[in-house]
Amino acid sequence: MLAVVMAAVVLAGCGASSGNIPDGTAEHIEQTTAPDDDTAVTGEITQAPVDAENDTAPDEAALPENDTATDEAALPESDTATDEAALPESDTAPDEVTPPETAASAIPAGTGKPVTFTTHSLAGQEVTDDIFSDYDLTIVHIWGTYCGPCLSEMGDYADAYSGLPDNVNLMAVVCDVYEDDPDMASYAQRILDDSGAKFLNVCLSEDLAYLIYNIQYVPSSFFVDSQGRLIGEMMDGASFDMTMDQLDRILNRQ
After folding, report:
1. Domain regions of the chain by residue span
2. Is the Cβ–Cβ distance between 243 and 154 less than 8 Å?
3. Residue numbers in the chain where pLDDT is lower than 70
4. What CA–CA distance (Å, rounded) separates 60 from 164?
5. In whole angstroms, what is the distance from residue 220 CA to residue 212 CA?
6. Are 236 and 140 in contact (CB under 8 A)?
7. What is the pLDDT of residue 89?
8. Please, are residues 23 and 83 in contact by the beta-carbon 8 Å criterion?
9. pTM of the model
10. What pLDDT sits at residue 106?
């Protein structure tokens, strides 16, 4: 039965091409210097002596009262106000309102029966559906070593993986690499190495063969939540651009 399923997947061929399917300083206040008392105009008194009270009036009027007022006005009170206004209070606002990453609440819950599987990575390590529980959202990319569009957009997936939010993961299923074929696993790994892809790639097991049985084209993709439940539909023949558009819609709840 597995052989028939595998053949159906491989013979499906390549799907749509990747083309179809970024001081100030306070202003200095110059203080007015009061004129020296020595410069006051004097004159010879020829009249009778002036009353003592009137005689002191000019001296009192000559006191530099206005200069004192000028000094008080010249105090750099406005500098203090400028300093208070210049305090970087608003600098903390963006940090308080800007989330460091996509919140888990932004990921809608999946529907249907959870995806379950057991398989092995290209390096031979066992991988199960428990991997989904580590992330709020997982992109499952399906590709084949024989598929030209799959190979041409592998570098795009490599770049996208490095920029994903911390709560989103990317893994791939290589539809023509089976668990008991180390030579094909090595060949697929060389493709990944050449494109700089660091995300997890797994072999096609019996569980995964039944999971993708209805997919007719590669590349394809689908999304699951932390419980392995499908979000949206299986994207048969989805290119990289189509997959990233769907990711944006999910993250923005569109």
Report:
1. 116-251
2. no
3. 1-106, 254
4. 81
5. 10
6. no
7. 52
8. no
9. 0.61
10. 67
Residue with tokens 């989904």: 132
CA–CA gap between residue 57 and residue 119 (Å, rounded): 108
Q: Prior bond to 88 cis, omega within 30?
A: no
Among the CATH numbers 3.60.150.10, 3.40.30.10, 3.20.20.70, 3.40.50.300, which is that of 116-251? 3.40.30.10
Q: CB-based contacts of 223: which residues, under 8 Å, 6+ apart?
A: 110, 137, 138, 139, 140, 230, 231, 232, 246, 247, 250
SS (H, E, C) 109-122: CCECCCCCCEEEEC
Best CA proximity match to 174, nearest among 138, 129, 121, 226: 121
Strand partners, 144: none
- For residue 105, the Cα-to-chain-centroid distance in whole angstroms is 16
Alpha carbon distances (Å) from 76 to 72, 80, 86: 9, 7, 15
Phi, psi of 138 (to 5 degrees): -130, 130
Q: 212, 210, 223: which is closest to 249 by C-alpha? A: 223
Whether the CB-CB separation of 203 and 185 falls below 8 Å is answered with: yes
Sheet holding 220-225, edge to edge: 200-204, 168-178, 137-143, 220-225, 230-235
Question: pLDDT tens digits, residue range 136-161?
Answer: 999 999 999 999 999 999 999 999 99
Integer Cα distance of 185 and 178 in angstroms: 8
